[in-house]
Amino acid sequence: MAKKALGARDVIETLRGTLDPEVGINIVDMGLIYGISINPKNNNIELRLTMTSPMCPVINIMLADVQMRLESLPDVGKVDVKLVWDPPWTPDMMSEEHRLAMGVI
């Protein structure tokens, strides 16, 4: 049986379940996802993401959750999660809805 091709939307919807525990907002709406690459031949995923601060006390927990969620996608190949710090995260990267709710705008 052929594998279903994965798309960026599949990854994004899956990652909406990973919350930044300090603010209770998912990492997609926080603007922590910097890039998604999916190889259409084997559904290998490379994800680039950041954290709100290099001093974030839950980095390892959040990275493990992201890895687990992506590996649970049907027909997924290899998952490579890369933590990056450039560009540094700012509240401007959050969704407008959440910036408004937090009074950041």
Task: Provide a concise account of the structure shown.
This protein has 105 residues and is an alpha+beta fold. It is built from 3 helices and 5 strands.
How does this structure look, described?
By secondary structure, this protein is of the alpha+beta class. It contains three helices and five strands; from the N terminus they run H-E-E-E-E-H-E-H. It has helices at residues 8-15, 59-71, 96-102; strands at 19-20, 25-26, 33-38, 45-49, 79-83. The strands form two sheets. The protein has a three-stranded mixed β-sheet, covered by helices on one side. It has a two-stranded antiparallel ribbon with strand order 1-2. The mean pLDDT is 93.
